[in-house]
Design goal:
heterotrimer; A alpha/beta; B alpha+beta; C mainly alpha; A: alpha/beta; 7-stranded mixed sheet; 6-stranded mixed beta barrel; 37 strands; 16% strand; globular; disordered N terminus; C: mainly alpha; two-stranded antiparallel ribbon; 11 helices; elongated
């Protein structure tokens, strides 16, 4: 209560912004009392979270006022080792001067000696643009070690993917199958939808080695061995095809199922679709020049010829004698031997359950059809009175993705979803703008090392979507141009790069040495790297001349992470409550099924200490380096600051396309396209920080082939072409690489040592193979698969410094199936060793009945290095908590030029976190009851707040 | 007479702890605060929370259920913690049935916590008084808030809306209907405390598929000649017997 | 439960004080009926009351350490209609007052005959104060014990045996102390007091054994099944929701291995009963050293007994706090 004698009453305010306690991006209301955060709750008017908030979002206060925050720019003390955490305060002027001088020299000589890798940031459009403007190809965000298989596997198949770009339509689904998902990025929306789905009587099946999180409330839990999801999905496809439970009409019209493929043994064209002679312009869409074998006329006709209906099965001969088969026929042949009994041995799931899963999916899809009275027109001009839905929805994430066989597994999933006729239909999978996009999307990296030139922007995108070998970014001899070897023959479709190999490659000088590595918001010396202990040594390793092998290391982060200790220069970032941000259509917006949505963050509290948002750092650096996008032709500063940049920057002068799509045009009257609006930020602020464009109903479904939608999308410059996007049951893109590996055709050919690898894994139809790690592991010696899951109350390594959240997860255990543990004589709570062929870790075991017996698992990133995140050196996180990363190697013996390859998917370079195999045994009596390995404790850096021994947070008390 | 309560739906609770920290966040800076934390950045951090989410494993692999179980004060209709309080600091409000602690009267003897079979009360080491869930009594009647916000912080936060809030004495309230129709039950009914908070059990949806549903007249394999009739020359009974 | 030393000292000290007073007044009553010689009232009743008062005050002081806000302790008399704790808070000072006045009357040799009972027994203020004190002593035993015995879900406590044992064990230690005290101040009463001390100690053994026997056979009323409302024989907690401990893990668990519990039990069974008995019987003839030893041993045993009393009580809330992860 306000005291009667106090003249100044408390000022209470509520400000809207967007959460960033994880990547979900919920709308939040920040309640302030005299300028101090008193309460953060969900914004009820926000389309994403509709007023709810999670444990992390509710603990934002403890992040804002955390003693782990970096508050001053710091430079490593002269003579101090990297990792020792010995720093001195400097000014931003000095930091900028140092950077501008060093980067200026690099740019003027060899731009690729500057590498920029960013973590779980939400500004990849800006960071990628900075790298491109700088002229370096060495840029990626964390996608390569996150879920690039999910993005690539689905986008190369259906032109869209889970999470930001699409998801399960639980509003209308009757059966929901979640596979390889524990907690997820799209966290609150999925929780909202799941609960509604269950209450509406939907059936929820979870396929996962572990039953936690969402799986807990599944109607049925199907435990599966890690890395075997592909076998399960292929067996389900087998059963669906064998029983005729696929949606034939959907496949005929909307996929390449009926398209004829040359199956001649001798032709260079073998494995490719046969095409009509109609010449088409070279563009990034699929011309409709392929053939069906028409059932009515019993001859080859151009696809979608009115009145034609193709055979999906059979073998035919073209007039010139070429033997051809429809893609679906090849798929049927592919899965012929993938019987449920075969998959049962691999997955550990009984064959009758696999069969039942297939039947539940197929019968639900077929017999519970939804007909919505929405008229729409398809790409071939056929008018439809209704939109049909087959109400079976799927969701999948890293459990499928983070394996070296993940790409083909996810292809199998996308094909299964397509067989059931559920793509962009009610109750199935729904796209979110700016997807669907052509398969593959049009962005391309340069394909020639000459795209990297001193003092010039990179001639092409920093990341892209190769469609054939000629799109690879390789030198004339086929060797990689990029430091991480992305878009090279080793990982041709590494569309998100391979951040997880950047440090090892730079340290080894393979493919080359670099000068400056700038890491933003990624804990690459701890939980975001494989082979943690050795990577820490690499970061501190010196060459013969006494210089660091990675000469200059800059880290921008808001917190004293393990990584910051290795920096030569630390740039203190702000928290999410102190900055402007955009969740842009150019990046990964927060679109809904019904239309594009983008959103912003607006600062609600002043910047702490000398912190500076990373975007401001990039714009300042870009201006000082005179990168064309940031300066006028005369070389003058173009943008005052980041908010000014966001408002005024356009993809090209006058394009009307910028970072934000809402309230464009001089008065804010336009959307998606329009000239810059000086009041755009204010308009977002007045509208819950969100712009939401709801498409007309008739544009909301079937968007791969919806003429109205595609033309709308083209008019608004979301896409360049309005051609239909047919589902790739059969992937000709993969076939192009395989064919090159077989020495056929006119495209580039892989180097000899990689030919077998390409030939094996670039199979145009999904297939199952043992993970690369399993292929080089003695499975009798290492019988268990080890995986991690992310707890719902923590986001990666971010929250151990959060006084409230760390009480929930203070350290982690290794969960072991009770029987598996007892076989090893391991009691609940015992100290044990977990050992892989790459390393070992001492930790504590917890018995569990909710884990498949061949799997052990733990929560991700709870374990910390002593003293990091400004915890006391005896904190549980470092003494009892542990990282599984020590057991995982970033490289495997393999077909790479050096006899090594990244421990990644051979197609996409996706980090194979979940392939590691281990054994467990009891620690000896008398061993220290402490996790191993241990590292020397970090000390707090200059300028940080001291941590208190008690906390009694009240915000600002009422005056 | 009104009895406000939470009804917690275990059928949809995914164990995300949103209710745990949103409660802490509201209440530490609210009329029930501060809620102290000891060793917030050191070994064995501990602090006052009014609400916790626990996890239980029910059954044996592979028939295991993982049950997330949020627990806070149950606002018993016959609260054993109230009569034992020597000072009257613990009390149950007549008007809405909320069980509260008056911090100014509390001497911190902890006896009320002994008298609670549920472990719902927490002694705050900073303020040296007993604390507990207030059902956000400083939110639910605050007319300066929008009506939609006038509910406990945990209820507002819960992403799966697993927490329902209302008057269980009103037979037409959402909570009463949920208890009645979805099998709501109280915890430890054996003690006769009549908890106002109730829990809704897990419910399972199953699909029953008859074998004859697998193959139908419109089976697409027929279109592609994959379910052909037997050839005329295949053997039949006609070949071997005359009856 | 977590045994709090403040409460252990509170209950054992006031128990001994109550017992001592009862012993004093018992002796006085016997003396009034000429069944015992009249001791030196100044020394025995006066100083004895002072000693009892000291024990009570010590117990009261210990109780303050249990409180989060001792300065508000005065508030705790408010709810005497419902709370045994409140009643204890009222009865304890009332009893102390009675003991004080009783001792004072003896000290001042204030013996005006107020009335004469049939049979010619004169009644003086010490007799009235003594009866009042006697009633209050029992009331206090009941209040103290009922604080525990009334908690129905602490089944180890929820029994008339709790009240009986508080009376018997407080009485035994008080009488033993009285015997030792008498050895110095009123040797003629030693045999009587030691005898009663021995008898009450034996009764105490019976009472405490009965409660141990009962407690060993208790079936918990609440189970994990009723605690979370799920019917399945195998339910295991994987996490209680926090890892660094909380009030729930500190207040309701003794936190010691079972072996410690067993050791403490055997220690108190020896130290409260047979050892003091032996010492009492050997000291029956007035050996003050042996009798003092009997009290010291028995009191130490009672500290252990009280520790065990708390530690053995299994609170149903513990069902919710079994595992961290």
């Amino acid at each position: 209560m306000p005291a009667a004698n106090d003249p100044i009453p408390s000022v209470q305010e509520v400000k809207n912004t967007t959460c960033y306690m994880c990547a979900c991006r919920c709308g939040i209301r920040v309640h302030l009392r005299d300028g101090v955060v008193r309460y953060i709750d969900g914004n009820p008017d926000h389309p994403l979270n509709k007023g709810v908030i999670c444990a992390k979002g509710s603990s934002g206060i403890m992040k804002q006022y955390s003693p782990a925050r970096l508050l001053k720019p710091l430079k490593r003390k002269a003579g101090a080792e990297r990792g020792a955490g010995e720093f001195e305060e400097i000014t931003w002027d000095e930091a900028f001067a140092t950077l501008a001088e060093r980067l200026g020299k690099i740019r003027a000589t060899d731009p690729k000696k500057f590498a920029l890798f960013t973590g779980r940031d939400q500004m990849q459009a800006l960071t990628g643009m900075f790298a491109r403007q700088f002229g370096t190809p060495n840029y990626a965000a964390h996608g390569g070690f996150c879920s690039v298989n999910m993005a690539a596997g689905m986008i190369y198949t259906i032109g869209g993917s889970f999470w930001e770009f699409g998801g399960p339509d639980l509003e209308r689904a009757k059966l929901f199958v979640m596979i390889g998902t524990a907690e997820d990025h799209h966290s609150n929306p999925l929780k909202i939808a799941l609960s509604k789905f269950k209450r509406d009587g939907g059936r929820f099946i979870s396929i996962n080695p572990v039953r936690t999180g969402y799986s807990a409330i599944a109607d049925e839990w199907v435990p599966i061995r890690p890395a075997t999801d592909g076998a399960l999905l292929l067996a389900i496809i087998h059963e669906i095809i064998a029983t005729g439970l696929y949606d034939r009409d959907f496949l005929v019209q909307y996929s390449n199922a009926g398209q004829l493929i040359n199956v001649s043994d001798t032709s260079d064209e073998s494995g490719f679709f046969v095409r009509t002679e109609v010449p088409t312009e070279e563009a990034c869409y699929e011309p409709q020049d392929k053939l069906w074998w028409d059932r009515n006329s019993d001859r080859a006709v151009v696809t979608h010829t009115p009145g034609a209906d193709p055979y999906l099965l059979g073998e035919f001969k073209l007039a010139d004698g070429t033997p051809v088969k429809p893609a679906f026929q090849l798929l049927q042949e592919r899965v012929r031997d993938y019987t449920p009994e075969w998959a049962a041995q691999i997955t550990g799931i009984p064959a009758d359950i696999i069969r039942r899963l297939a039947h539940e999916m197929g019968v639900t899809a077929r017999d519970q059809k939804i007909e919505l009275p929405i008229a729409w027109t398809d790409s071939w001009g056929n008018e439809h009175d209704t939109v049909t839905g087959n109400p079976v929805a799927f969701h999948a994430m890293r459990g499928l993705a983070a394996h070296s066989n993940g790409f083909q597994t996810i292809r199998a999933l996308a094909i299964l979803m397509s067989l059931l006729g559920t793509i962009d239909r009610p109750g199935g999978f729904r796209h979110k703008a700016p997807f669907p996009r052509p398969i593959p999307p049009c962005a391309r990296t340069p394909n020639d090392s000459r795209a990297v030139q001193p003092n010039h922007p990179l001639d092409g995108m920093v990341l892209g979507w190769p469609s054939d070998p000629d799109d690879l970014f390789v030198n004339d001899d086929g060797s990689p141009v990029r430091l991480d070897k992305a878009f090279s023959w080793e990982y041709p479709l590494s569309v998100h790069g391979l951040m997880h190999n950047a440090i090892t490659n730079a340290w080894r000088g393979d493919p080359y040495r670099i000068d400056t590595l700038l890491i933003f918001m990624a804990n690459m010396s701890w939980n975001s790297t494989m082979n943690t202990a050795e990577v820490r040594q690499m970061l501190n390793d010196k060459d013969e001349s006494g210089g660091f092998k990675i000469p200059f290391l800059v880290v921008c982060d808001a917190f004293q992470s393990e990584m910051t200790a290795f920096a030569d220069l630390i740039l203190p970032d702000t928290t999410y409550l102190e900055r402007h941000d955009v969740m842009s259509m150019l990046d990964r917006p927060i679109s809904e099924f019904d239309g594009p949505v983008d959103s912003v963050r607006i600062p609600v509290v002043p910047v702490s200490g000398d912190c500076k948002p990373f975007q401001e750092v990039l714009i300042e650096l870009g201006t000082r380096l005179k990168l064309p996008a940031f300066v006028t032709p005369a070389g003058e500063r173009k943008f005052r600051d980041y908010p000014d940049f966001i408002v005024n920057w356009e993809t090209e002068p006058g394009s009307g396309i910028g970072f934000l799509s809402g309230w464009r045009g001089k008065g804010g009257e336009k959307f998606l396209r329009g000239e810059p609006n000086p009041n755009q930020w204010e308009m977002y602020a007045r509208n819950n920080c969100v712009f939401h464009y709801e498409l007309p109903k008739s544009y909301q479904y079937m968007r791969n082939w919806n003429k109205g939608y595609l033309e709308w999308s083209q008019r608004n410059r979301i896409t360049r072409y309005a051609e239909p996007i047919l589902i790739h049951l059969y992937s000709e893109v993969l076939q192009r690489f395989r064919s090159a590996a077989q020495g056929k055709g006119l495209t580039r050919k892989p180097p000899q040592h990689l030919r077998k690898r390409i030939d094996t894994y670039f199979d145009p139809l999904p297939f199952y193979y043992d993970s690369l790690e399993a292929q080089v592991t003695d499975k009798h010696k290492y019988p268990l698969a080890a995986v991690t899951q992310r707890p719902m109350a923590m986001y990666h390594s971010w929250d151990s410094q959060n006084a409230w959240l760390r009480q929930i997860h203070t350290h982690n255990y290794l969960y072991v199936n009770t029987r598996t543990a007892l076989q090893q004589g391991i009691a609940d709570g015992d100290w044990i060793w977990v050992e892989s062929q790459w390393g070992k870790v001492r930790c504590m075991a917890r018995h569990s009945e909710a884990v498949e017996p061949g799997t052990v698992w733990t929560w991700n990133a709870i374990g910390k290095a002593a003293g990091a995140w400004n915890l006391t050196p005896d904190a549980n996180e470092s003494q009892k908590g542990f990282l599984l990363n020590h057991l995982i190697s970033e490289e495997l013996p393999g077909a790479g030029a050096s006899g090594r390859v990244s421990n990644s998917d051979p197609i996409t370079g996706q980090a194979a976190w979940y392939d590691v195999r281990v054994r467990i045994y009891k620690a000896e009596a008398g061993e220290a009851e402490q996790t191993s390995p241990q590292f020397e404790a970090l000390k707090p850096y200059p300028g940080m707040k001291t941590r208190g021994s008690v906390l009694a947070y009240v915000g600002k008390l009422f005056k | 007479m009104t009895q406000l309560a939470l009804v917690i739906d275990l059928n949809v609770c995914v164990g995300c702890h949103a209710c745990v920290t949103s409660c802490k966040e509201w209440n530490t800076s609210g009329s029930a605060g501060p809620m102290g934390d000891q060793n917030p950045y050191g070994a064995d951090p501990t602090g006052t929370f009014f609400n916790r989410v626990q996890t239980f494993e029910v059954g044996e692999f592979p028939n295991t259920e993982t049950v997330h179980f949020p627990k806070s004060c149950l606002h018993c209709e016959d609260p054993p913690c109230v009569p034992v309080c020597p000072t009257g600091a613990s009390y149950k409000r007549k008007e809405d049935g909320i069980v509260l602690v008056n911090y100014d009267k509390c001497i911190g003897c902890k006896y009320c916590s002994w008298a609670c079979p549920y472990g719902a009360r927490e002694f705050d080491e900073q303020q040296r008084v007993m604390k507990k869930c207030t059902l956000c009594v400083d939110r639910i009647y605050d007319t300066s808030m929008n009506e939609g916000d006038r509910k406990p912080s945990c209820v507002k936060a819960c992403p799966t809306s697993a927490r329902l809030f209302g008057d269980i004495h009103d037979p037409d309230s959402a909570v009463s209907i949920a208890i009645r129709e979805s099998g709501g039950y109280p915890l430890m009914p054996e003690w006769g405390t009549h908890p106002a908070n109730h829990y809704l059990p897990r419910r399972k949806t199953r699909i029953r598929i008859h074998l004859d549903e697998l193959e139908r007249a419109d089976n697409p394999l027929k279109v592609d000649r994959q379910l052909p009739r037997p050839a005329m020359n295949e053997p039949t009974l006609d070949d071997v017997t005359t009856w | 439960m977590h045994p709090a030393f403040s409460v252990i000292f509170l209950t054992t000290l006031i128990g001994a004080g109550q017992g001592l007073f009862l012993a004093l007044f018992t002796a006085q009553s016997y003396a009034a009926f000429k069944l015992l010689p009249q001791p030196d009232a100044h020394a025995f009743y006066g100083q004895g009351s002072l000693l009892a008062l000291a024990l009570l005050a010590g117990g009261l002081a210990a109780s303050f350490f249990h409180l989060g806000h001792p300065e508000r302790a005065w508030r705790s008399a408010a709810m005497w209609r419902t709370s045994w704790l409140s009643r204890e808070v009222i009865v304890l000072p009332a009893f102390m007052g009675a003991v004080f006045l009783y001792g004072l009357a003896h000290w001042l040799d204030w013996h005006p005959v107020l009335m004469t009972l049939p049979g010619g027994l004169p009644v003086d203020p010490t007799a009235i104060l003594g009866v009042a004190g006697w009633v209050l002593a029992f009331a206090l035993f009941i209040c103290t014990a009922m604080i525990y015995a009334c908690l129905k879900f602490l089944k180890e406590w929820h029994s008339p045996l709790t009240v009986i044992n508080y009376i018997l064990l407080g009485g035994a230690s008080g009488f033993t102390l009285a015997a030792a005290f008498a050895a110095v101040t009123a040797p003629e009463l030693v045999g009587f007091l030691a005898g009663w001390a021995a008898i009450i100690t034996v009764l105490g053994l019976l009472g405490r054994s009965a409660s141990l026997y009962r407690n060993a056979r208790l079936k918990p009323t609440s189970t994990l099944q009723t605690a979370i409302g799920i019917k399945h024989p195998r339910i295991v907690q994987t996490t209680q929701g926090f890892m660094g401990g909380s009030f729930n893990t500190r207040e309701f668990f003794h936190g010691r291995p079972v072996a410690v519990l067993r050791g403490v039990k055997w220690f108190f069974l020896l130290a409260v009963f047979p050892l003091p008995l032996l010492l009492l019987l050997s000291g029956m003839q007035g050996a003050s050293g042996l009798l003092a030893a009997a009290f010291v041993v028995q009191y130490a045993g009672l500290l252990a007994e009280r520790w065990f009393f708390f530690a053995q009580a299994n609170h149903p809330q513990n069902l919710f706090y079994q595992s961290i992860a």
